[in-house]
Design a protein that fits this description.
With about 1200 residues, the chain is an alpha/beta fold. The chain contains 40 helices and 27 strands.
Length: about 1200
């Protein structure tokens, strides 16, 4: 063997080891790496690492070697799990509704349960998406409050809800359909159909009886006695008793089968007895508020609520009607105590374990009532656009718009509702929001009673009559006669400390107008103006109306009021800017004591502590704090909401002595003062300057006089310039308040909400609106006289008189009354001597039948014996014709002589020559023209332009020509036949008129309704059959601008934007301050604004094409993008203190815009979820969250 030698290798060199030293940057540190190919050094000395080319890597991995992909491997292939078949799962269905129930049978006297009886249930297959009945099962608990836009509303009260008997009757009518002639061949919405015409069907021989017809009336079911009895149990929606259906009615015994077939089967179907309407349809019943209620505590021994004071007479009367579950309309003066009626209704609902809804026109009033009622009752909730407190409470306070939404969405709260209280119902006159009140009143179910609280209105009975007819129940109208605290109205002409006593009484507490005080004010003003002219020259302006003069006027006025202890005072100024100027100008005025300053300071600190630090340093907050410390306050829509609440609370405590406010402060806010001052009697109503209306003046002046504290209230009108005219002052102070007028208009939301419910029609809603009420209540009053015709009836005109006393007698007009509304013409008329009273002198005609001579030809009256004359007062309808003849007469002398000869002492005196001459002229005309003198032509002489009057005259002439050839007028029985024919024609005419009034064609808004439906059909919201499509259901969920928002959503105009950009764009739909968006906006927002305007323009063009009156420019002009930048920066997190520099809009309006914008974002979020857009819904949720922060959404002080 060969021995192997072992090789001895030398030790390895350090350079041959697999280690590499790497310098770590410039730090001087080294590191050993056991990596082949490690770099010499790291950054910054070495080359930067570079990533491989992605394109080459993708080509190499995926294109060059596709086997690398997992799909080519079997192990990565899709797996399949075999499902075990279960055929029985296909048969699993929801349980059928329970068809019957057990009803306890009690002893009629003791109430002891004697047994149980099974009764059949009706309407067991109802649901919230198929029925409007209250018997349908409640929806999910999460939707019990707000309802769901897909649910049906409950059946409105006053409309005829189909009962079970109606449905049975309808089924009977369906059974009588002729299946050979009455069947449709093409179903609605289909293009093709089926022909049901019989083919080679043999007809039965005459005289043979059909066995099916014989057996049809027979009840072959053989139901037992219990089932027959169960049909009569209460089951209708209103608890009415419904009799058995025709199939279960007992058959009458017949002697033979032939008699049974030939005899008509009579089925006694008893219809439910409706409540008898009041006699002569008196739905509004006035209640005498002056008659005392002496037996009040005998009638109500245990009232539901008791006050620390004795209720007034009108309050007791209202409470008595509430105990009877009647609906009431309380129209009382300001501060009379209308809230007492609301409080008793709330207490009564709590006693009955039902619910009450209190609605108010404005959010601020809702917050105040929540605080007041919560302190009184405890179980009170609040629902506004951004606040939801205690929704399960028995009394819910909300705005009217929220109640309308709950009614349309079928909220289950309506089931337990007993009372709905409408406060400040005279707000129905508001042009923008008045329609909401009418919609709610129409949609309320029948079991809900209504309480209407309003200031005094002149047509309270008419309004209550409309509601009574609408709901088919009596409305008791209770009105107060006088104010509890009478008012005294003054004029103030002073402007300095020397003239601070120039206060002149104009209207005292008894309602007497003092002209002496008015002329004294005029003289005082003239004297100062003359002194001013002597000092500064006659051409110097007498009044500037600037801040300096305002300051002098208010300093002198407040000094006078302070001396007379007539503070606190509310100064109504009809401009936000002037409010701020007047308060800021009184820098030297300090009306609070040191203790009051301390109380104000502590209250401010406690209220402002909830704001963030930067918000406490807002200029408006600092300025208002300084004013409040001196006893001054400002209240208008430009003030931040939390500051307005601070001012209201301090004013109610008596710590604010002088409050400068706009008109909104008088709307329902229960903040009475000792004195009310009007800065001016003129206001700008949005289009022009005008004087205050009597209703507006009474509403604001009613804040004067605190009940229980002041014997009288003081109202002062400042005369900075000239003293207003006496007639204007008299009309404003003593005129009648504005009547309640309908502002009903059609909206797309209303149309869509009703179109999605088959049983409700928009025409029914229009019929029941207050605007259609007068036209549907009375027939049209035709104006029989024209303006030019009345002008021609002047003194001296010869006319043909035809009435019950005179038949075609000539007369001459002596005098015309000055009353332009109802003209009376004093006329000298020819007559017989003595006056003939025997109608047989004129033939067989009666007073109601025309004379045959008149029908075949016109014949003037000629005295048969001695001619006499008389003077009568005529209406325009008493004159048959106006002749072309004019006589010169002295009307005054003739009247004076005739009235003198009517006295017994001068009865036989001869008439004056003027009378004799006039009578002779009339007699000569009658003899010269037996067929009547020439008359004035309606077109050529009277210059009538009205087509209806002209056509009526021409038609009368043509009828006269046709009657002349008639032979019936010569019949001896003409009077009797004429009366019968006329009665028949009058009845037919009245029937046609009533049919028209009850039809849809008489609706004033029907053309606009068809136009708006055509707009919805063109945009794809409803189909040809009127069925609401998906876009229409989305529009139902919108609170405003429903078409524009829906189109933006379906055009995906919002989905690509960020939440803050969406909020900024939508601000153009809710902003009320006009202005431009500015040039500093991002391009995305500029493009978004243009797109929104383009969509609005497209909708406007569709509306114009469908016939609506609104132009495209007007529709697009409703968008105001003046706060786009402000909202955009606010949504991005900018503090409120920095927003003031972006826009000149007052802070209060900015807050209101952002609050309304948050509500719109929430409605869009719900619509996005409805349409299946989760991305847009999440963005709208984010946008609402970004907006809801800091001072804009600070909690109301009234809810804390």
């Amino acid at each position: 063997m060969m021995e192997t030698e072992r090789l001895v290798l030398p030790p390895p060199d350090p350079l041959d080891l697999p280690l590499r030293a790497v310098e770590l940057g410039c730090t001087g540190h080294w590191e050993l790496l056991n990596l082949p190919g490690a770099p010499e050094s790291s950054l910054p000395h070495g080359l930067p690492p570079c990533a491989p080319d992605l394109q080459q890597e993708a080509e190499q991995l995926f294109l060059s070697s596709p086997a690398w992909l997992p799909l080519h491997g079997v192990e990565h292939s899709a797996r399949k799990w075999q499902r075990k078949t279960d055929p029985w799962s296909l048969l699993a269905v929801l349980g059928a509704p329970v068809p019957s129930d057990l009803q306890a049978q009690r002893h009629p006297t003791t109430g002891q349960i004697l047994g149980y009886k099974e009764v059949l249930l009706e309407n067991t297959n109802l649901s919230a998406t198929t029925s409007l009945s209250l018997r349908r099962p409640p929806g999910p608990a999460s939707q019990s409050l707000w309802g769901n836009p897909t649910q049906y509303p409950f059946w409105p009260g006053g409309m005829d809800e189909p009962t079970i008997t109606d449905l049975n009757t309808r089924e009977e009518a369906e059974e009588e359909i002729d299946f050979e002639k009455d069947l449709l061949t093409i179903p609605p919405g289909f293009k093709k159909g089926m022909d049901f015409a019989p083919k080679d069907c043999p007809t039965p021989a005459p005289g043979l009886l059909s066995l099916s017809c014989m057996l049809e009336p027979l009840d072959l079911g053989g139901g037992d006695e219990d089932e027959n009895e169960a049909v009569g149990q209460p089951g209708g929606p209103r608890g009415d008793t419904v009799s058995a259906s025709p199939c279960s009615a007992p058959l009458a015994r017949a002697s033979s089968l032939e008699d049974l077939v030939l005899k008509e089967a009579s089925t006694a179907v008893s219809t439910p007895e409706a409540p008898e309407p009041p006699s002569q349809e008196q739905w509004a019943i006035p209640v005498d508020a002056t008659s005392p209620v002496g037996d009040f505590y005998r009638l109500i021994p245990q009232p539901a609520f008791q006050w620390a004071f004795e209720p007034d007479v009108f309050q007791k009367q209202a409470i008595l009607h509430l105990e009877r579950h009647d609906s009431v309309f309380v129209a009382a003066h300001t501060s009379a105590g209308k809230t007492v009626v609301a409080e008793y209704a709330i207490a009564l609902a709590q006693k009955h374990m039902t619910r009450t809804i209190y609605t108010s026109p404005i959010k601020a009033l809702s917050n105040q009532k929540f605080r007041d009622f919560r302190n009184t009752f405890g179980d009170v909730g609040l629902l506004t656009g951004d606040v939801q407190l205690h929704p399960e409470a028995s009394c819910l306070i909300m705005t009217t718009e929220i109640l309308r939404s709950m009614l349309y969405s079928g909220s289950d709260v309506i089931r337990d509702l007993e009372w709905v209280i409408f406060d400040e119902v005279h707000y129905i006159n508001d042009v923008e929001r008045g329609v909401v009140w009418e919609e709610v009143l129409i949609m309320l179910p029948d079991h809900v009673s209504i309480i209407l609280l309003s200031a005094t209105v002149p047509n309270a009975l008419e309004f209550a009559d409309w509601i009574g007819r609408l709901k088919r129940r009596q409305i008791y109208v209770i009105s107060t006669v006088t104010r509890p605290v009478p008012l005294e109205h003054y004029l103030f002409t002073g402007n300095s400390s020397k003239t601070q006593g120039e206060l002149f009484l104009l209207l005292d507490s008894r309602g007497a107008f003092h002209t002496k005080g008015y002329y004294a004010a005029v003289e005082a003003k003239k004297e100062r103006m003359s002194k001013h002219a002597q000092t500064f020259g006659a051409k110097q302006p007498t009044h500037q109306g600037g801040p300096a003069q305002d300051r002098g006027v208010y300093l002198s006025l407040l000094a006078s009021l302070r001396t007379r202890a007539q503070l606190p005072v509310v100064v109504f100024t009809f401009s936000r800017g002037r409010c701020d100027e007047q308060a800021s100008g009184l820098t030297s005025l300090d009306l609070t004591t040191s203790s009051e300053k301390s109380e104000i300071h502590l209250f401010l600190q406690r209220c402002l502590a909830r704001l963030r630090g930067s918000d406490r340093q807002l200029p408006q907050v600092l300025h208002m704090s300084e004013l409040l410390n001196r006893g001054l306050g400002v209240h208008h829509s430009g003030i931040l909401p939390i500051l307005k609440e601070i001012v209201e609370m301090l004013f109610s405590r008596g710590l604010v002595k002088v409050l400068f406010a706009t008109e909104t402060f008088a709307m329902g806010v229960n903040m009475p003062a000792r004195t009310v001052v009007f800065d001016s009697m003129r206001k700008h109503d949005g289009s022009t300057f005008r004087d205050l209306l009597p209703g507006e003046y009474v509403q604001m002046a009613g804040r004067a006089g605190r009940r229980g504290l002041d014997p009288t209230g003081t109202v002062i009108l400042l005369c900075k310039g000239r003293v207003p005219e006496m007639a204007d002052l008299h009309r404003m102070m003593m005129g009648k308040p504005s009547q309640l007028q309908s502002q009903f208009r059609l909206t797309y939301t209303m149309i869509l909400n009703l179109l999605r419910v088959d049983a409700l029609r928009v025409e029914d809603m229009m019929k029941r609106s207050f605007s259609e009420f007068p036209s549907r209540k009375d027939s049209k009053r035709r104006i029989m006289e024209s303006v030019n015709g009345l002008k021609s009836l002047s003194a001296g005109r010869v006319v043909v008189v035809k009435n019950q006393e005179h038949h075609n007698a000539l007369g001459v007009i002596l005098q015309v009354s000055s009353n332009s509304t109802s003209r009376v013409f004093t006329t000298l008329v020819l007559c017989d001597k003595p006056l003939s009273q025997d109608p047989q002198d004129r033939g067989p005609a009666t007073a109601e039948v025309p004379y045959p001579d008149d029908l075949v030809g016109f014949k003037l009256f000629l005295p048969e014996g001695p001619c006499d004359h008389t003077v009568v007062k005529l209406q325009p309808g008493d004159m048959a014709a106006i002749t072309t003849k004019v006589l010169r007469v002295n009307g005054e002398k003739i009247l004076e002589d005739f009235s003198k000869r009517q006295q017994p002492k001068f009865k036989k005196d001869p008439p004056l020559a003027a009378v004799t001459t006039a009578v002779q002229e009339l007699l000569r005309l009658a003899q010269a023209h037996p067929a009547g003198p020439p008359t004035l032509d309606p077109v050529n002489d009277l210059q009538l332009k009205d087509m209806s009057v002209v056509e009526g005259g021409l038609r009368a002439r043509k009828l006269e020509e046709l009657i002349q050839g008639a032979q019936c007028v010569h019949s001896p029985r003409f009077p009797a036949q004429y009366l019968k024919l006329r009665e028949r024609m009058q009845i037919q005419k009245e029937m046609e008129r009533l049919r028209f009034l009850l039809s849809d064609q008489s609706l004033l808004l029907l053309p606009e309704y068809h136009q708006r439906v055509e707009v919805l059909r063109t945009l794809g919201y409803v189909d040809e059959a009127g069925t609401v499509k998906l876009a229409g259901r989305v529009a139902c969920a919108m609170s405003s601008h429903e078409l524009l928002l829906t189109e933006l959503m379906f055009d995906n105009a919002l989905s690509t934007l960020r939440p803050e950009e969406i909020a900024a764009l939508l601000s153009g739909l809710v902003c009320q301050s006009p202005g431009d968006a500015g040039d500093q906006l991002p391009n995305t927002l500029k493009q978004g604004i243009e797109r929104v305007r383009a969509v609005a323009k497209r909708i406007g063009e569709v509306q114009v094409a469908c016939g609506l009156n609104q132009t495209v420019e007007e529709f697009v002009g409703e968008l105001n993008f003046g706060l786009v930048e402000v909202v955009y920066e606010w949504a991005r997190g900018m503090p409120f203190s920095e927003l003031a520099g972006l826009s000149g809009t007052p802070e209060g309006l900015v807050v209101r815009c952002i609050q309304r914008l948050a509500e719109m974002c929430r409605s869009l979020r719900g619509a996005a979820r409805l349409v299946g857009e989760p991305v847009l819904g999440a963005k709208m949720e984010t946008a609402a969250t970004l907006l809801r922060r800091d001072i804009v959404f600070a909690a109301s002080l009234y809810t804390q």
